Amino acid sequence: MRGFYENGIVFGVAIILFIGLIISLSPVGNLSVQSTPSGASVYLDGSYKGTTPLTLSSISTGSHSIRLALSGYYDCTRSATVSSGQTISIDCVMTPVPTQPPPTTGCSSYHYTINGKTVSGTCCGNLQTSMRCENGVCSQTYTCNGKPVS
């Protein structure tokens, strides 16, 4: 009986060591995610992981998509290729979404340049500015009493 017990312990220890070896050889790496300003939500391959600054451990090797989102800022999207045992750093400087000024009433003068064309004039009534942004590229239009200014 004594030999069986000792062999059982040796066998159990061997299994634990083998499992530990498999875990240590698993192809994983880490991601260190920063943003300016901090506090951005971090999404790894579409799944929420926390807020910046954030270190994600045991990330499977290969290509991953990282998206940072913060209210009042454009999303920041990056791709990263994680290598076994390595830490990849992601640092996003968040770009603020422009705010739109309130409409003005009374007579207002305007002077602006859009696509290289400068336009100046005066609007008596309701001068409004509209801003449209796609993929970080913004365009601005002006209307006077609902009619485009050109």
Overview of this structure, please?
- The protein is α+β, with helices and mostly antiparallel strands.
- It has 2 domains: 27-93, Sandwich (Immunoglobulin-like), CATH 2.60.40; 107-148, no CATH class.
- 16% of the residues lie in helices and 54% in strands.
- It has 1 helix and 12 strands.
- The strands form 4 sheets. Strands 3-2-5-6 form a 4-stranded antiparallel β-sheet, with no helix packed on it.
- The longest helix has 24 residues, at 2-25.
- The chain is rod-shaped, with a radius of gyration of 29 Å.
- The relative contact order is 0.13.
CATH fold name of the largest domain: Immunoglobulin-like
Q: How many DSSP E strands?
A: 12
Average pLDDT figure: 79
Series of secondary-structure elements, N-terminal to C-terminal: HEEEEEEEEEEEE
Distance between the termini: 98 Å
- Largest sheet, if any? 4 strands, antiparallel
Low-confidence stretches: none
Described by the principal axes of the CA atoms, the overall outline is rod-shaped
In the CATH scheme, the class of the largest domain would be Mainly Beta
CATH superfamily of the largest domain: Immunoglobulins
Number of helices: 1
Q: Strand-residue fraction?
A: over 45%
What is the strand and helix layout of this fold?
Layout: H1 2-25, E1 28-36, E2 41-44, E3 47-51, E4 54-60, E5 62-69, E6 76-82, E7 87-93, E8 107-114, E9 117-124, E10 127-134, E11 137-144, E12 147-148
Parallel strand pairs: 1-7
Antiparallel strand pairs: 1-4, 2-3, 2-5, 5-6, 8-9, 10-11, 11-12
